[in-house]
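Budget justification aside, the reviewers requested a transparent look at the raw inputs and outputs of the sequence design task funded under Objective 1. We therefore reproduce one unedited record. The lines immediately below are the structure tokens for a 237-residue chain.
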């Protein structure tokens, strides 16, 4: 009778766990199946700056030339800050016609668009680069995001935290039922990275930018939170 009551208590603990996409585990006698979340906060090691360049003109060639001029200014900003333009990547280069629909549909111009992404390890260069790009007025938007590229250690720490919480819960339940928690029999792990981008900075920020310090000046980058979920099956003594 004691065994039946104990298994019912275990099943009450874990309905949310079974609702997730995890391998099915059959509850066995003298076992506890628990799930727990853990996390670890790590300082970012990379700043990712994304720029959108977009220009339009009466002809596709003129729009392309204007966009190419903007991209060249980006290269000059990078060189001025001691960076090789090859550090930046271009995602695409598209040409799209612009239509007027009244009194009838006709092409009135062309828009050329491209995205440029730059990853920096030296955070001291972020302020000058974003400021100079704003002054050059070459990008419709700038998006700055701090990320953690070397994430393996942070994932391991998050898993450790989740497992500790899962084992503590299982140990508490075992002691409450008059039993002793045994060895780990089974476990599954999921890890997630929570990246938090900063607000977009548009062309409008170029106005009066010389009178103010760069927007990132004296601030500390946000921590990157890595979370883990552990499902664990323990034997009972």
């Amino acid at each position: 009778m004691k065994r039946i009551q104990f298994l019912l208590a275990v099943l009450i603990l874990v309905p949310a766990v079974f609702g997730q996409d995890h391998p099915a585990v059959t509850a066995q006698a003298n076992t506890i199946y628990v799930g727990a979340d853990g996390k670890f906060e790590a300082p970012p090691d990379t700043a990712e700056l994304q720029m959108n360049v977009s220009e339009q003109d009466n002809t596709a060639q003129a729009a392309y030339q204007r966009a190419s001029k903007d991209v060249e200014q980006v290269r000059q900003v990078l060189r001025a800050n001691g960076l090789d333009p090859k550090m930046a990547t271009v995602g695409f280069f598209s040409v799209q016609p612009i239509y007027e629909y009244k009194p009838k549909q006709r092409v009135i111009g062309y828009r050329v668009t491209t995205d440029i992404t730059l990853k920096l390890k030296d955070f001291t260069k972020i302020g000058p680069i974003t400021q100079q790009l704003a002054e050059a007025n070459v990008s419709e938007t700038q998006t700055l995001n701090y990320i953690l590229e070397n994430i393996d250690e942070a994932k391991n720490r998050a898993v450790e935290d989740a497992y500790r919480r899962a084992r503590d819960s299982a140990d508490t339940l075992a002691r409450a039922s008059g039993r002793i928690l045994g060895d780990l029999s089974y476990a599954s792990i999921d890890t997630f990275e929570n990246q938090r981008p900063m607000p977009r900075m548009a062309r409008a920020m170029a106005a009066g930018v010389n009178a103010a310090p760069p927007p990132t000046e004296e601030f500390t980058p946000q921590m990157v939170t890595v979370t883990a979920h552990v499902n664990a099956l323990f034997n009972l003594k």
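The mean pLDDT is 83. Strands lie at 31-42, 46-57, 88-100, 106-120, 141-147, 181-194, 201-202, 224-236. Computational costs for records of this kind are itemized in the attached budget.
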